Structure formats: C-alpha cells, structure tokens
Amino acid sequence: MLLEVEDLVARYGAVEALHGITLGVGEGEIVSLLGANGAGKSTTLKTISRIIAPSSGSIRFAGRSLDGLEPEDVVALGIAHVPEGRRIFPGLSVIDNLRLGATPRRASRAVIDADAESVLAIFPILRSLGSKLGWTLSGGEQQMLAIARGLMARPKLLLLDEPSLGLAPLVVKNVMETIARIARDGTTVLLVEQNAHLALQIASRAYVLETGRVALSGDASALLQSEEMRRAYLGSAVRVS
After folding, report:
1. Residue 64's beta-bridge partner residues?
2. Which CATH superfamily is domain 3-234 in?
3. Kind and range of the H or E element at 47?
C-alpha cells in the first residue's frame, strides 16, 4: 500500500473526532471516503496531511512513518491536499496561483513554468484564464484551479476534499472525469465526496465513515450494488453518464 492508516485517533480539544480509523490506498488507485456531514472525512485528510496531529495510531506513506512531520514535510514527501472550499488566492492570477503550488519543491522558474504548461494540458479551460484574478473565476473554474495547483507539487498522492461541492451537475461531471484522468496518468487519489454515487463510479475502492469510524468498506462496484449502501447513501444520487 502507498498509504497505510492504522487505528487513527484524532481530537479537536476534548472532542474525539476519529475513533480508530484504519484504511489503505494502493498506488494508482482512486479510493473514496464517503459519509454524512460530521462523519470524519475531512478530519481524516487533515490528519494525513498533518494539519491536525493525531492523538494515536499510525500513518505510513511509501513505507515511511509521518509521525512528527510538519505539513510542509508531508508535501515534500509527495502528498498534496486540496482542501474543501478551494482556497484560491483571490488577489493573484490563475498562473500565480499555479506557481504557488510548486513552492515546496523550490524548483527554478523555468521548471515551474514547464510544469504549469503540463498541468494546463489537463485543464485546458484554465489556459485562456491565465492572467485573470482568482476571484473572477466561476466556481467550477476555481475548483479546477485548486486541483491544478495541487498537482504543481508533483504529488504521488492527491487528497481531494469535496471537489463537487456547490457545483452545477455538468461541471461536477467534468470535475469527476478530470479526477479519473489524473489517476490514469499515475497520481494516486484519496477522494472525500458527499455524492457517493459519483465517487463510486470513478473509484476502485471506498470506505464509508459514520461518526468517526469505518462502517463499510469494499470494492466500489460492490458498494454500488449494496442494499445497505443504497438505502443510506445512494437514494438521491445522480449518475455520471
């Protein structure tokens, strides 16, 4: 496994948010974390990227423990986190937002610009917007920019938190297709997504969290057919065709 999380416990002050999460992500996979609001999905990502320090348990990436590392160390190892809400810098242009994604690598401007060209090939909609300020972009364009900025770190593992949130159905379809392409091109993805049906259609495996614990897990195709999964999470989902 590229990422191994075992018995992970995390707290916000005195409140325990994760109660012993165990999961794994294999190289080249898209693995989805599903569940209702407050289930612990975003907390899991924040703990993996060391934004939150775990109370106990272990996280290993490519065989190395992440214990004691700072978030910037985790990025340098090859994990990029695209948070919920996009977090685009509104006063910076699209291209400058992209360049900031490469900051942890300390690469030359020429290398960064070459990487930006490669990333823009995945997100052609952004190419014509390079000089525009972040705040002028639509929600879908901002989400594409947030993912593109994460890829500028050249991650082995991309953590995506609710990339479809607040987007129109057609835009969501485009975002999910792009995530699938990123995985096909060799970047492993751990995807937090409330739209379970969409996530399961592009994922190879999934874990379902309930109140900080893993309630269900398995192959995405099997979970799509699971009666328990259908009753709890798939009733009103929209298919990607």
Report:
1. 61
2. P-loop containing nucleotide triphosphate hydrolases (3.40.50.300)
3. helix 41-48
